[in-house]
Amino acid sequence: MILYTIVPWEVIFQDEEEIQPTHLINAAGRTFSVRKTAEGDVIERLHSTDPNDFLDQRWNPGNLILRD
Amino acid sequence: MVLPPKNKTTKYEHIIPQLVAVEQNPKIKGLLVILNTVGGDVEAGLAIAEMLESMRKPTVSLVLGGGHSIGLPIALACRYSIAAETATMTIHPLRLSGGMIIGIPQTFEYMEKMQDRIVRFITRHSAISEQRYKELMFRTGDLVRDVGSILMGREAMNEGLINEVGGLGTAVAKLEELIRLAEESQGGLQ
Q1: Is B61 part of the annotated catalytic residue set?
Q2: Model pTM?
Q3: Where are the domains of chain B?
Q4: Looking at CA atoms only, how far is residue A18 from chain B in angstroms?
Q5: CB B69 to CB A12 under 8 A?
Q6: Does domain B9-183 have CATH number 3.40.50.1970?
Q7: Does B107 touch chain A (CB under 8 A)?
């Protein structure tokens, strides 16, 4: 990968091994990649073919998907 | 590839479809892009910049704090770019980092090609010449740990990179003006 940043790469890649795996789930009629946490599923990425879904604040990365 | 989440606050794979939605949604008249970034992934940054430059809707960018590295093409991709007086923009050569680097001459050629993409994008979207941009990019003594230069808002304007020095008020007023102009020209066509 090529980076164009003023941040030194030692800082960017300092604890890469800590990345948690993501899971693919279906919720609210959409597909999400989520990270499982104690509070619930945190959105890592929204998979949708409708661009307007990405303007919906509820599906922003970092938001929680409440378990049914 | 996506940077580790702790180093990343915006996700380009979320922003790209957002821009598609902004372009398609009839309720959205224009887009104000507020930038405060240290830069990052070249492919991601250029993809956002390429999306912005090809939008039909009026776009205005506002750099606050910093619009470093790959943030600069994003700022310039908008139809009108504004930076705060105290905002800084760092111009420096591209760096290859992380992972295994194959030490063959072609690797350097590849890097040069990637660098050229950025330089070409910037010179096409601003008044700066390629020669002057490269001069700033390869300058020594300005950055402590690196080759390149730091430009403050007004310097960036004087170099012909951004259009104007200002703030949120300036940016919103400009966007409203561009929207009005777009609506007028559309009304004239009908």
Answers
A1: no
A2: 0.85
A3: 9-183
A4: 9
A5: no
A6: no
A7: no
Q: List residues bridging with B40 in a β-sheet.
A: A4
- Residue ranges of alpha helices (H) inside B54-104 are 71-77
pLDDT in tens, B3-16: 445 555 568 889 99
Report the gap between the CA of B173 and the closest CA in chain A (Å): 24
B69 is a catalytic site residue: yes
What pLDDT score was predicted for residue B8? 56
The beta-carbon contacts of A58-65 under 8 Å, at least 24 apart in sequence, are A58/A28, A59/A30, A59/A32, A60/B14, A61/B11, A61/B14, A64/A39, A64/A40, A65/A25, A65/A27, A65/A28, A65/A32, A65/A34, A65/A40, A65/A41
Element at B82 (helix H, strand E): strand B80-83
Per-residue pLDDT at A68 exceeds 60: no
**Chain A positions in Cβ-Cβ contact with residue B111 (cut-off 8 Å):** 2
Measured between CA atoms, the residue of chain A closest to residue B15 is: A54
∠ at Cα B137 (B135, B143), nearest 5°? Answer: 115
Give the ipTM: 0.78
- 8 A C-beta contact, residue A4 and residue B95: yes
If you ran DSSP here, which 8-state letter would residue B122 be given? H
The contact set of A with B (CB < 8 A) is 1-9, 11-13, 15-16, 18-19, 44-46, 48, 51-55, 60-61
